[in-house]
Target: BFD-like [2Fe-2S] binding domain-containing protein
Amino acid sequence: MKIFGQAALKIEPCPLCGKSGRPVGGITVRHLLLEAYREEATSEAYFMCMNEDCDVVYYETDGATSFTKQEIEVPIWFKRDANPRYACYCSHVTVEDVMDAVIHQGARTVSEVNRLTGAMKNANCKLNNPLGVCCHGVIQDVIDQGFARLKTGAE
Model:
């Protein structure tokens, strides 16, 4: 497996919380950092801490450099205090927009959500999405959560 043109990266734990992260390219990190921190982002490979309670968003593979929520230009959708919680960063479609499309407008697929919300129309995911990848998976996760709410009768 290759990640960012290198041999497979060993998944290093977050230096703050110790949980495993997901690989993210340096171009994404530099684009989303506040201007004051961009020069510190010299690596081509980072990890994103996936712990919703941890303040760290990105960290280098060696753990020497990390960036917190306060140093990022956008809220990170899954972090506990994110506001707004974007499902699609490129089109500024929120998790709540997707949930509404499922629960109140009858969307059942990512394509239907996209049509109703405008998600995935202005794709520049490598720069705009904090993971540096397409938001399709996030939108599908929210659709699944919406189905679960409909099944239990919770809105």
About this structure: The two ends are 42 Å apart (CA to CA). Residues 2-71 form a domain with the N-terminal domain of TfIIb fold (CATH 2.20.25.270). The chain is about 30% helix and 15% strand.
